[in-house]
Write a structure and sequence with these properties.
Mean pLDDT: 82
Low-confidence stretches: 13-86, 386-391
Distance between the termini: 24 Å
Strand content: 5-15%
Structural class: alpha/beta
Number of strands: 23
Number of helices: 23
Radius of gyration: 32 Å
Length: about 750
Amino acid sequence: MGIRRVLCSLLHYMLPRKRPGEGEAVNEGNSESVLKKHRISSSTDSKNNQESNSSGTGSLVVENSNSNRNKSCGEQTITEMAFDDGNPRDIDEDLHSRQLAVYGRETMRRLFASNVLVSGMQGLGVEIAKNLILAGVKSVTLHDEGTVELWDMSSNFVFSEKDLGKNRALASIQKLQELNNAVAISTLTTKLTKEQLSDFQAVVFTDINLESAIEFNEYCHNHQPPIAFIKTEVRGLFGSAFCDFGPEFTVFDVDGEEPHTGIIASISNDNPALVACVDDERLELQDGDLVVFSEIQGMTELNDGKPRKIKNARPYSFTLDEDTTKFGTYERGGIVTQVKEPKILNFKPLKEAIKDPGDFLLSDFSKFDRPPLLHLAFQSLDKLCLNWGASRLLGVKRMLKGDGKLDDINPKLLRHFAFGARAVLNPMAAMFGGIVGQEVVKACSGKFHPLFQFFYFDSLESLPTEPLDPSDLRPLNSRYDAQISVFGSKFQKKLEDAKVFVVGSGALGCEFLKNLALMGVSCGEHGKLTVTDDDVIEKSNLSRQFLFRDWNIGQPKSTVAASAASSINPLLHIEALQNRVGPETENVFNDAFWENLNVVINALDNVNARLYVDQRCLYFQKPLLESGTLGAKCNTQMVIPHLTENYGASRDPPEKQAPMCTVHSFPHNIDHCLTWARSEFEGLLEKTPAEANAYLSNPSEYTSAMRNAGDAQARDNLERVIECLDRERCESFQDCITWARLK
């Protein structure tokens, strides 16, 4: 009681006299606390109800072996391309935690029920297969009739020189299976028939002529249910992709974003009704959107869960396309939530689409005229033999001009297209492997808007600025011959002697190291690649950081990644470090280290580290390749000294934060509630014990400091100490449990 007497007397000394009417705030506070708890639980219940309803609409229908497909006894047939098989594989949340956050459980279940065929196991095919296996589809079948050639070595990370002469599919299966043992992987090494496609929900062809592609696509398009068909290819610095998911494909979630919500402030009894929302957050609704209402008091007729169309959407209000004059009078409360409508896409079969492609998806707005030209160039390439030369180039040009659709054809572009037509370059394969892998996920799950229908891409700006000598493009009987046929042997020599610094070896870092090894970067006598990462491997990394295996869990990322990259290309000169890049490690990454570099590649996961590396590159005038991912979104930035702005030259706007008075008095959305809970947690379990310990360590000094401070913060601190050491003092572990339960 001595502690209480001292502290209470000090607190009484500091407290002002009460005004009339004060003294009942505690009960009101408790009442408000109850209201807050009720509001939060109601919001949670509402959300759970919405989730369960959405799950109910996606009920899965499964036929047995007596359906129209020829199946072995007991094998089930998936009646809809994106639907579950009724006995879904359990989701390993430790492994797929990141995917679950982006796709959601329903999408993951659809994905886990999907069987996919990948035909053509050159560089592009193996990249697609890798991405699908990591994503966790039910099965992947690898098809290829050809054998491993030296040209394949510069784009396929699963091949080694021991595989030369082996069937590509058979040479790929072992290393691909290591990526995910939960995915069934099989091979086909003979000629493919149309009937075999009925076993799959999606088929991808990376090395097929146009005539066969049209035949297979026709079968997939008319099959019931339709089979998603994708044709893609990479030719040097050019790439293409075509998607056909059937005559009526349903996209359940166009953008993958959470439905927009708003807190209602008022609703008028009018025709049409005006709905106003609180003005601390802009509404992200558009004219024509459907919304549902919940938790409205007064005008309860709107709480029926019926989707209603809105118009005249404004930042903080909208008009409801409904007569509310006979509804009850709005009193208070209510949440408006956007309803995401499914979208039906009518894909055309390849035979029709190739004649009437419609609008092309643009990736570079400075090349508006490029897709139509490439559309015809890829068709012409299919009609000519692959033994390319200058004489064949004229044939392409005549064919394109004869079409009558293009008047001005750039002969330089066609020359590059022709000479690189046989090469599958690793950077292009990696890029299109990611794009097509995502399209397969869209086809199997119905989540995100798919590619509709043609996509063409070129990267001619990657070529050296000076003209290439034809003799420089001759093959050298090396694993880099495909790359040399496009860039030349002199450029290849520069890559091999490059000194590169890769910062981070996570998801992006693994991809970069694989790409660099296949390209021969730092594989020459004077080359060196340094990779650093202070993190260790966890199970959740394995679903996207493909250089790691389950037996590597707990080991340093950089060491394992460096070893895996060396196995891809034994000539790679790589050094792995476990140092964080920052001011504290400038004795390791000193001036001599930075001066000796040719290029720096960031694979980081936080802004502060990016800014530090950017400043070092700016100081030492080194090129920096910056990139990052967030779910299904990504960004990239090339920082070239004296040519582009640096990473730190522009900053993202600060994240919007709610005022603390709103957080403490009326936390009305999820962000507010999380901030409120964190504040309460810190107060109970961090600030209060810290203040109590400060008092116990030196009572006289602490009381003197509080008396001298004499402000509201000091009074609050004293209240915390009294609460901890007297009012709610815990003498035993059981007391602690009781205290926690009451809280």
